[in-house]
Amino acid sequence: MIAGALRDIVIVGAGQGGFQAAASLRQEGFTGSVTLIGTEADLPYQRPPLSKAFLKSGNADQLWLRRADFYEKNAITLVPDCRVNRIDRDNSTVYAGDRRFRYDHLILATGCRNARPPIQGLERALDLRTLSDARRLRTAAARARRCAVIGGGFIGLEFAAVAAGLGLDVIVAEQASRLMARAVSPEISARFADKHRGLNVDIRVGKSAAAIDDAGLHLADGSTVAADLVLLAAGVVPNAELAAEAGLIVENGIVVDEQLRTSDPNISALGDCAAFPMHDRGFRVRLESVQAATDHARHIARRLTKGDAGPYSAVPWFWSDQADWKLQIAGFAQPDDESEMLEDGSVLRFSGARLTAVETINAPKLHMKARRLFAETPAPTRAEALARLDVEERRRMAAGA
Ligand SMILES: Cc1cc2nc3c(=O)[nH]c(=O)nc-3n(C[C@H](O)[C@H](O)[C@H](O)COP(=O)(O)OP(=O)(O)OC[C@H]3O[C@@H](n4cnc5c(N)ncnc54)[C@H](O)[C@@H]3O)c2cc1C
Fold first, then answer.
1. Nearest CA residue ID for atom 14, ligand 1
2. Does the Cβ of 239 fall within 6 Å of ligand 1?
3. Which of 126, 151, 340, 391 is deepest in the core (most CB within 10 A)?
């Protein structure tokens, strides 16, 4: 069903992607009703600053994606503090307790939540997914002296850098053999491990958490880390139960096709909860990034208003701020893709002869060049990558020639 035939669009999940879908529908000229339903009480906000600037400042003013009057002006019905608990596909209706919302098209933008690994006393750990979590964590950090972070991924490390900057003793326990192992090359992992050690963060890799009690965090190797604050940042699971219970296909997220349609063409899914086909790569991924959530949302809005929007093919990109280092990733690499470090510490990733990602630290120009390269040349060869990213020239400059 497209354009004229659609009257009511309901979006479940009022986070980054749900908000963008509502805003983009209006930008694309959709004139029917748009209802944006979310469990959280606050206006839709950006999550990235929660583990960065907000932890330092506590100022929520910079977080809102738009002020309250935006929703009114754009005739977007925002329904906060409301959890959708059932989708009735036969009657094209979603239910939240005794409230019901009818749709012609439904967009699922339910994001993800912290995974709960089997750690005794896990209820003592704090989360960092929502604005309420971040407020709680700020208050706890102000009283704490020693923190332990379970998980050396982006969020755990961003928090560790802020906490160390606030003068707290910080240890990070990461189960894998290196930091951010799912997302970056071994070379970038190693650079960040050194960076954090330089900030006095105690980085322990290959260490899983076993229990939390009054003494702090107990590791599976029998050692104990004294801590009065424990942060859980050990990965996430997609909020896909609603979709699964409605009979939609779910496999590490809500499965969508290249148009971001679920197994029911009247329902789309986007962002952190959606497992989508990586264009031209022959596999499906679920990306936890602002870029994926916003580009998915724009693509769905275009399809619903203009008809066929072509296959989703946006270039993936990502950033993480840790102390004074900005990590940026253009493209998408699998953990075992090969890597080649350049003289400035940036890393090119390859799968066979094909460039899959470019990882940079404090090198925004190279990052933007890489994004342009992926946009213009979807499968760049090694030779194209070296030429377009001026690798030889950078080498000559680094050698002082
Ligand atoms: C602390 C933190 C730091 C981050 N930093 C970065 C970064 O530096 N760079 C980057 O690219 N990405 C970052 N991310 C990831 C990025 O914020 C997410 O990828 C993005 O928010 C995903 O958007 P989304 O709309 O898919 O999900 P979300 O923004 O998570 O929104 C999902 C919403 O759906 C709601 N919901 C779930 N189930 C229901 C239901 N049944 N009914 C109603 N509502 C429901 C949830 O409560 C939530 O509000 C960070 C995330 C966090 C938590």
1. 48
2. yes
3. 151
Superfamily grouping for domain 3-113+237-306: FAD/NAD(P)-binding domain (3.50.50.60)
Q: 271 CB under 6 A from ligand 1?
A: yes
What ranges do the domains of the chain cover? 3-113+237-306, 116-234, 324-400
* Digit-coded pLDDT (tens) for 59-105: 999 999 999 999 999 999 999 999 999 999 999 999 999 999 999 99
With the most atoms of ligand 1 within 8 angstroms of its CB, the residue from 47, 241, 288 to mutate is 47
Task: Give the class (CATH, top level) of 116-234.
Answer: alpha beta
Specify the CATH architecture of the domain 324-400: 2-Layer Sandwich (3.30)
Predicted local confidence at residue 397, as pLDDT: 75
Write the pLDDT tens digit of every residue in 118-139: 999 999 999 999 999 999 999 9
**Two structure tokens written together for 321:** 């701020």
133 C-alpha to center of ligand 1: Å?
13
For ligand 1, whether the C-beta of 171 sits within 6 Å is no
Residue nearest to atom 20 of ligand 1 (CA): 290
3-113+237-306 against 116-234: fold identical? yes
Cβ neighbors of 147 (< 8 A, separation 6 or more) are 141, 160, 163, 168, 169, 170, 171, 227, 228, 229, 230, 231
